Amino acid sequence: MKVSKNTNKKIFLASWISLHPVDASEANMTALHHVAAQPAWDFLRPLRNWLDNIQVRDRRLAHCLCKYIPAQCPFERDVKVFGKTLFHIPPMCKLNPLYEEVVGLRFKAMCYLADTCGEDISQYC
Predict the structure, then answer these.
(1) Which of 12, 46, 92, 122 is the most buried (most CB within 10 A)?
(2) Is 44 in contact with 97 (CB distance < 8 Å)?
(3) Rounded to the nearest 5°, which phi and psi values hold at 123?
(4) pTM of structure
(5) Angle in degrees, CA 5, 10, 13, rounded to 5
(6) Which residues contact 13 (CB under 8 A, 6 or more apart)?
(7) Measured between alpha carbons, how far is 2 from 20 in angstroms, rounded to an integer?
(8) Contact, 92 vs 99, CB < 8 A?
């Protein structure tokens, strides 16, 4: 028995087509995450920029960053009693307003160790 005999040979392609085309120069080309996520005044912006601009060029600094920034949220747990799960505590790290920048810094440190120094980073994964 061949699979091709029992499959439907009709292909259906769907897409969204605008009935009223708009020129790219007239369209408002703002990304949704910039409109919704950015408050009017972000007081953490200088700290975010500082964390984003840190260059990892020292092996000791890279090891410290990989060691002290956890790969997974340390607060996420399942609370069990007698082998039965009572409830689950969700990860709280996403509530940190600097979470993305700190995880990015850890990633830069791991890339430096792996690419530039040629070290095995499996201990940090």
Answers:
(1) 92
(2) yes
(3) -70, -20
(4) 0.62
(5) 145
(6) none
(7) 46
(8) no
What six digits make up the tokens of 66? 């990989």
What's the Cα-to-Cα distance from 107 to each of 43, 52, 62, 74, 76, rounded to whole Å? 25, 11, 10, 18, 21
Please list, in sequence order, all residues whose beta carbon lies within 8 angstroms of the beta carbon of residue 91, skipping any fewer than 6 positions away.
Answer: 72, 73, 75, 76
- Please name the residue that has the structure tokens 């890279």: 62
3-state secondary structure of 86: strand
Q: How is 23-55 classified by DSSP, letter by letter?
A: -TTTS----HHHHHH--SS-TTHHHHHHHHT--
Distance of CA 60 to the CA centre of its chain: 25
Please state, in angstroms and rounded to a whole number, the distance separating the CA atoms of residues 118 and 125: 16
Identify the residue with better confidence: 90 or 38.
90
